[in-house]
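Thread: phosphoenolpyruvate complex, take 2
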Amino acid sequence: MILHLKNTADKKVADMLAETYEAIVLNQGSTSILITPSRMRTVEARHEQWIDKLFVFDSDIQLASRQYIRETRPVKFGDITIGGESRNCALIIGPCGVESEPLIEESAALIRELGLKSMRAGAYKPRTSPYSFRGMGLDGLKLLAKMREKYGFAIVTEVRDSTHIDDIIAYADVVQVGAKSMYDHGILQKCSKANKPILLKRGFGSTLQEFVQASEFILSGGNDQVILCERGIRTFETKSRFTLDLCGVAYLKEYTNLPIILDPSHAMGYAYGVPDLARACMAMDVDGLLIEVHPNPTIAKSDASQQLTHEQFRALYKTLQSIATAINRTIV
Ligand code: PEP
Ligand code: MN
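Output below.
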């Protein structure tokens, strides 16, 4: 359960209640919020004097639950707001990895041409083979920061492990936690204390419950700017790289209060399927799409098979605009 304490409950009382109910304490302005394990559903009569509001839940999806906050939480990065009152759908595009300055400049040119406001690219790439390109590291982050300075883009870039998380937090506008890192508690803990939005990707072997509970680690540590990203899960199917769980997206929309971004590129794994999937994603009425583009995907150092050429993306963009209009979303 979540308990909002009355302002008359001082720190001593809050600590006493936290100990009694095994709760995490979250301070929001002058209000102390206690989050207990969800199996606890009532407080003792003698403690009621301290409680302003009490919310009970069926599971440990609590802060992220629509039962707690009905509206989708607003999350702001750069000039973009998603969720909240907005009907924005952020199109976050860019190459899989930062490979060179010319590549990033070409990507920036496409983003500017389309009037978009954010750029994605990884400087630290988590890979399945140690012999693959693992990113430009800090030099890559500096190139991304340069794009923000020159063009005002909000930068979305991923953290691979906890050794460089402080740099990512310092350089990024949105910290992306990749599918392979969803369970990394060192990363989640740092993200929970960061004053930056966190784009949390679903682990490809994780249930929706596990996924949303990972977001609870960030929320309960004090960072309320969390975006959920569905990027495909592993199923028995081998013809596509992963399976984009759109049923899961419907669940997340119904039961959670966090903005949702969909990533058709990593789900499909092959460029030929990405435009149709991206249109399906837009039709899901979500808060954003993450799509990989590369001026020449055949020579990309990572995820070569799934990145769209700039020409392919221009064509896709036009059709996404029509769908956005039909569902009353504004592409930003
Ligand atoms: C990426 O966005 O380039 C990436 C590695 O994504 P994921 O963590 O979903 O595999
Ligand atoms: Mn990628």
